[in-house]
């Protein structure tokens, strides 16, 4: 019987022009969305590769030019000398921290078009580079990118509604529903088969395009990522199928069903996430970024005015770098600069902690509130699966800060040793000795990828919402089967 119902539904759909329009929209838009996501991931990969190549080229060039620098007799400024620890630390170092895109990055652009994914490292206060962003047109950032996540979250439900809102209506209008019920066919069975066929018309071409595109555009994508993506799309489609069944179970006209479903789509996809976002930002407002910049400027001025105090605190924290008591030489410029950098970071730490605590509170509240929004559930799951979510970005920032600390420790130790050997001023009018002959000694950043974050909780919640709606629809359609709702208008 199920096979007969499905074949009959397919024959009916073939007569509808809407079927071919929906198919065309699904295929064209999914291809465009997949291309946009893959193109952005390719741009990121090219930038990351260029940064790594530039870093290796700098090491190779320095190795090849070492003999020429050793034979150099003309005066050279230390800030222009790639073989000087001070010049490398503060001005010339080519050292990048990069976050490569995942093979599944085409699934969702997420916040990767806003958040930085590479930093050029120098020995400076972390506030000088950690808030660095690429220049981009603000309108482009506001509109975002048309990616698969956008298509699935916003457009897929509309396509499903357009195919499903009038299910069961034809049978009621022609009187076939009463005859089918007299033969033992329940309305729930009929509508479930109809909606499954109509949902498949949209979801299966979408999945076919996406899965094929993933394996063509990404050589290293894993089966787990593709499988989880497929489950997410099917779970989201099942939710909208269940919602359509629930609305249709009231036995109203197709026009009424369409109006209710569109209003529900608008509420769940547009209004509810906007309300939740406003609630999160209102409950945990972030400190003013302008005030933060002003505070950073003030703290920098205070450290400049009390440089001796900052230097004393630096040597107290790093006694191994302090000069012997009987050494009358003045403290070198590089050590003073590192001491100032350390003092500025220490002075700004409470303000950095305030921003981080607000960010953590907002994220915790978002994780809690997204459970009432199917769109937010799917969005968070796709962002995490693509590697463009907030969690992976925060892990990257933590690793960047650790690398920044390692670079400063590397340079401050060697600068102090070089100064104690008089390498920077071997004689009056002489060039400084070569203090960094091999740039490969400088610590290099290596991003440590965390295991794939699969949002099983989001999948389970989507399935739970779907089963609740299907159960409610089944209860109402059971009443129809018993003849209590047959008198309602078709």
UniProtKB/TrEMBL annotation:
<feature type="transmembrane region" description="Helical">
    <location>
        <begin position="190"/>
        <end position="217"/>
    </location>
</feature>
<feature type="transmembrane region" description="Helical">
    <location>
        <begin position="148"/>
        <end position="169"/>
    </location>
</feature>
<protein>
    <submittedName>
        <fullName>ABC transporter permease subunit</fullName>
    </submittedName>
</protein>
<keyword id="KW-0472">Membrane</keyword>
<feature type="transmembrane region" description="Helical">
    <location>
        <begin position="223"/>
        <end position="248"/>
    </location>
</feature>
<feature type="transmembrane region" description="Helical">
    <location>
        <begin position="454"/>
        <end position="473"/>
    </location>
</feature>
<keyword id="KW-0812">Transmembrane</keyword>
<keyword id="KW-1133">Transmembrane helix</keyword>
<feature type="transmembrane region" description="Helical">
    <location>
        <begin position="255"/>
        <end position="276"/>
    </location>
</feature>
<feature type="transmembrane region" description="Helical">
    <location>
        <begin position="18"/>
        <end position="38"/>
    </location>
</feature>
<dbReference type="InterPro" id="IPR021913">
    <property type="entry name" value="DUF3526"/>
</dbReference>
<dbReference type="Pfam" id="PF12040">
    <property type="entry name" value="DUF3526"/>
</dbReference>
């Amino acid at each position: 019987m199920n096979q007969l119902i499905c074949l009959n539904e397919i024959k009916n759909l073939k007569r509808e022009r809407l079927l071919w329009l929906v198919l065309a929209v699904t295929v064209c838009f999914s291809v465009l969305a997949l291309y946009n996501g893959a193109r952005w991931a390719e741009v990121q990969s090219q930038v990351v590769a260029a940064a790594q190549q530039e870093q290796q080229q700098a090491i190779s060039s320095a190795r090849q030019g070492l003999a020429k620098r050793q034979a150099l007799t003309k005066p050279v400024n230390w800030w222009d000398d790639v073989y000087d620890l001070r010049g490398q630390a503060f001005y010339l170092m080519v050292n990048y921290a990069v976050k490569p895109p995942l093979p599944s990055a085409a699934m969702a652009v997420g916040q990767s078009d806003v958040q930085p994914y590479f930093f050029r490292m120098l020995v400076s206060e972390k506030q000088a580079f950690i808030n660095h962003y690429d220049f981009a047109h603000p309108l482009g950032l506001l509109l975002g990118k048309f990616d698969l996540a956008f298509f699935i979250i916003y457009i897929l439900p509309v396509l499903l509604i357009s195919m499903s809102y009038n299910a069961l209506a034809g049978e009621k209008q022609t009187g076939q529903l009463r005859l089918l019920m007299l033969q033992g066919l329940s309305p729930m069975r009929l509508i479930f088969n109809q909606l499954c066929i109509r949902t498949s018309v949209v979801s299966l071409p979408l999945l076919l395009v996406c899965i094929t595109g993933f394996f063509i555009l990404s050589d290293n994508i894993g089966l787990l990522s593709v499988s989880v993506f497929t489950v997410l799309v099917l779970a989201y489609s099942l939710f909208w199928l269940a919602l359509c069944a629930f609305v249709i179970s009231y036995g109203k006209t197709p026009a009424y069903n369409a109006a209710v479903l569109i209003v529900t789509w608008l509420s769940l996809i547009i209004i509810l996430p906007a309300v939740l976002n406003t609630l999160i930002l209102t409950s945990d407002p972030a400190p003013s970024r302008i005030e933060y910049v002003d505070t950073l400027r003030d703290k920098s001025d205070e450290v400049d005015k009390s440089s001796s105090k900052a230097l004393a605190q630096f040597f107290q924290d790093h006694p191994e770098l302090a000069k012997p008591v009987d050494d009358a030489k003045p403290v070198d410029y590089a050590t003073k600069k590192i001491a100032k950098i350390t003092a500025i970071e220490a002075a700004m730490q409470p303000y950095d902690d305030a921003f981080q605590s607000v960010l953590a509170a907002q994220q915790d509240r978002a994780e809690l509130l997204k459970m009432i929004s199917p769109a937010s559930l799917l969005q968070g799951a796709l962002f995490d699966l693509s590697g463009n979510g907030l969690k992976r970005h925060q892990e990257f920032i933590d690793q960047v800060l650790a690398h920044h600390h390692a670079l400063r420790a590397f340079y401050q130790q060697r600068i102090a040793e070089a100064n104690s050997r008089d390498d920077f001023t071997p004689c009056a009018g002489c060039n400084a000795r070569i203090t960094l002959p091999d740039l490969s000694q400088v610590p290099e950043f290596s991003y440590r990828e965390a295991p794939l974050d699969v949002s099983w909780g989001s999948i389970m919640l989507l399935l739970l919402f779907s089963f609740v709606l299907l159960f409610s629809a089944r209860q109402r359609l059971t009443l129809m089967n018993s003849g209590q709702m047959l008198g309602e208008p078709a």
